[in-house]
């Protein structure tokens, strides 16, 4: 009835997709994606990706970040959870806690908060109804 090969192909295509929020763009709300996302503008909300999140030096995120990999050159006000590799570029500023498996910090990068490495980050789920129900109950 359901073809697993097609489902796997669809997931691979979703993870290969790319999203871009351009410089000068202001966005309010949460973002969830299977693919990569690059943010050059301002975002008030949480960002979740099953792939990679890149924040350019002109970016500002007021919310939490959850991703498989992330590269930060801008400013984040919120927690950053990365299941594999987090790279903090020299222009990065993070005001919040960091949880990651591996961390690269360039000279000049700053963060104010705690940092846990080697910890297992929670599973990244996208569009999960249970998760929506949970967030609606806590709101």
Explain what the structure shows.
With 139 residues, the protein is of the alpha/beta class. Helix content is 16%, strand content 47%. The protein has two helices and 14 strands. Strands 1, 3, 4, 6, 8, 10, 12 and 14 form an eight-stranded parallel sheet that branches. Strands 2-5-7-9-11-13 form a six-stranded parallel sheet, with no helix packed on it. The protein starts with a helix and ends with a helix. The C terminus is likely disordered.
Helical fraction equals: 10-25%
Question: How would you sum up the major sheet?
Answer: 8 strands, parallel
Q: Are there runs of 5+ residues with pLDDT below 50, and where?
A: 130-139
Rg: 15 Å
Order of SSEs, N→C? HEEEEEEEEEEEEEEH
Task: Report the portion of residues in β strands.
Answer: over 45%
Number of H- or I-type helical stretches = 2
């Amino acid at each position: 009835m359901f073809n697993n090969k097609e489902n796997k192909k669809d997931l691979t295509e979703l993870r290969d997709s790319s999203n871009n929020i351009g410089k000068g763009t202001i966005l309010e709300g949460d973002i969830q994606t299977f693919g990569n996302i690059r943010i050059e503008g301002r975002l008030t909300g949480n960002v979740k990706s099953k792939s990679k999140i890149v924040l350019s030096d002109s970016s500002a995120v007021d919310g939490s970040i959850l991703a498989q990999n992330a590269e930060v050159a801008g400013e984040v006000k919120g927690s950053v959870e990365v299941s594999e590799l987090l790279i903090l570029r020299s222009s990065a500023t993070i005001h919040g806690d960091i949880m990651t498996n591996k961390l690269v910090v360039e000279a000049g990068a700053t963060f104010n908060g705690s940092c846990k490495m080697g910890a297992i980050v929670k599973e990244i789920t996208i569009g999960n109804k249970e998760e929506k129900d949970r967030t609606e109950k806590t709101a």
